[in-house]
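Internal ticket #5521
Category: modeling
Description: The requester needs a full-assembly model to guide mutagenesis choices. All entity lines are attached below as received. Residue total reported by intake: 564.
Assigned to: D.W.
Attached entities:
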Amino acid sequence: MKALPAILALIIAAALFGPLFLPWRYDAIDWSAVRVPPLSPGHVLGTDSVGRDLFARTLVGTRVTLAVALAAALVSLMIGVGWGALAGWAGGKVDEAMMRIVDALYALPFMFVVILLMVVFGRSIVLVFIGIGAVEWLTMARVVRGQVIVLKERPFILAAEAAGAPPAGIILRHLLPNVAGIALVYLLLTVPQVVMIESFLSFLGLGVQEPLTSLGILVKDGADDMDIAPYALLLPGGVLVLLLITLTLLGERLRDRMSA
Amino acid sequence: MRALILRRLATALPTLAAILILSFLLMRLAPGGPFDGERPLDPQTRAALTSAYGLDQPLPVQVTRYVGRILHGDFGPSLVYRDFTVTDLVAQGLPVSLMLGGLAMLLAFAIGLSVGLAAAAHVGSRLDRVLMLAMTLLTALPTFVTGPLLVLLFALGLGWLPVSGLESPRHLILPVIALALPVAGAIAKLARAGLADVLAQDHIRTARARGLSDFRVLFVHALRPALVPVASYAGPAAAGLLTGAVVIETVFALPGLGRYFVQGALNRDYPLVLAVVTLYAALIILFNFFADLLYGWLDPRARG
């Protein structure tokens, strides 16, 4: 379990810098080596059905997946913290109405909302993460609101109010720094969910588009080809699963530590 | 109990109406239309098609017509599958999806509850820790990875089960398992947490002190209150199964609603996508409704 941060760091470093050291670009086609198995000369992990280097593709796919996940998680962080802080600070009817909206949204099938957005506004990578971020902020809003309601009654906030500080200043200067810790933990918990949604969309052909690649696209390509070349599925699938498990366990551990 | 039912209905119906109208408007905002093919249509044909499908009317008229037709069970013609109405397509796909989802739900509850019970009966033991780690892994595994992996192992590798299609009940075994696993993991975790909480309470200690058997304590006194968190998960579980079914139907080439949905989304087949989203929303609202009733039955305090 102590290895979790190390595994995560390794995956991120490999995705960021790995492609620099490879002779093949992720979209370059090697006509002399179409669908060669792993450990072939020139292609350590083999090539896919059109002769693209699988190692390079997996590294770049991981990079795209991580980038989309981080961007989407940040979008959800901004919406969630803003919404939650506002609701918690306003209190009363406003709070009730805002949280009622969150409850109602919880009951909706998110994946379909994101897909609907993709269908309507076209399938671009920017929309993928904005769309995902726009539906994944609910838990963040709840957590931040709960925290703000507790903080609001603490003496230092009351003192700031008594001293005549404007509400915006109190929220920015005093409240947000104090919810930052828990917000970051939930940001970490959001990342694997976003990775899952992105791969899901890309797998169905509705997310990241070729020639760009992501782990979801690679798993899809591998699954289409698995009767002949199972390694094309196992490699990206393995990286995706490792990434999801590491992020989930790490996030849960941090959350348990925060609440303990 | 009646107050609870009425209150839930009062929120469910407007939610459904809002979803209908919003998804319709969203679709109409879309740049690009259903008649944008590879070759541009000549203006006359385009105008004829547009008016035949009523797309030249003002938006409020379109919305009202659309909702009115849906209330009569008519989702209009599919824009891509030219010879089918959307209702035909949905009627073909829905039974497959319901069977897939229903079986997966049963399997998920069977696995989830038994693992949850086993872990809670030995809280803190090695068995408990191993089971819970396994369940965390299950919830972290996406269906679009487990599905192909199961096919690779049991269909292509061992040859025990068919790869894809839906010619016999045997064709459903792998899809149902792949769909059920993540939900089973979540249910097991909730059931374990709920049971562990209840088992630590005073009335359970009293029941034990009076000499009741472990079996009786667990199943008669502890299980019902412990299931409250599981019941509240029934709604999200249904949503999870529906989303998972979209992938599973694609992976296993099952002729269900999810596949039509993906095809519709890729082809910009508005009426088809709208119909499926509406149906999904209705199903999820229905499930949340049942979950609330179950909740009220399990925990009398929630009935008020």
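Resolution: model delivered.
Comment from assignee: Chain B touches chain A at residues 11, 15, 19, 23, 26-27, 29-32, 136-137, 139-142, 144-145, 147-149, 151-152, 156, 235-236, 239, 242-243, 246-247, 250-251, 261-262, 265-266, 268, 273, 277, 280-281, 284-285, 288 (CB under 8 Å).
Ticket closed.
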